[in-house]
UniProtKB/TrEMBL annotation:
The lineage of its organism: Bacteria, Bacillati, Bacillota, Bacilli, Bacillales. Residues 1-96 form the CRM domain. Signal peptide: none annotated. It comes from Thermolongibacillus altinsuensis. InterPro entries: RNA-binding_CRM, RNA-binding_domain, RNA-binding_YhbY, YhbY-like_sf. Keywords: RNA-binding. Pfam families: CRS1_YhbY. This is RNA-binding protein.
């Protein structure tokens, strides 16, 4: 679990990122979860945007993605979800204690 300090640090790092995934009408599926898990392994910190036509609630989408990709939910801001997962292969982000 992330501490408040670590979440603030990650939110600041995520601020300039653009969402690389969009959840739309189809909602969350296995393929999307796998792609997000792969992206997290490569980048550690990503943004996902929830489109207007998504039938699932953004909190539900965030929960499904975080659990599916075994990632930490950093924040939900508007229709954007920020996810973090420490990379095994190429760790780039050093979290504060």
């Amino acid at each position: 679990m992330l501490t408040g300090k670590q979440k603030r640090f990650l939110r600041a790092k995520a601020h300039h990122l653009t969402p690389i995934f969009q959840v739309g009408k189809g909602g969350v599926n296995e393929n999307m979860i796998k792609q997000i898990a792969d992206a997290l392994e490569a980048r550690e910190l990503i943004k996902v945007s929830v489109l207007q036509n998504c039938e699932q609630d953004k909190e539900v989408v965030a929960d499904l993605l975080a659990k599916g990709a075994k990632a930490e939910l950093v924040q939900i801001i508007g229709k954007t979800i920020v996810l973090y997962k420490e990379s095994r292969e190429n760790k780039q982000i050093i979290l504060p204690n």
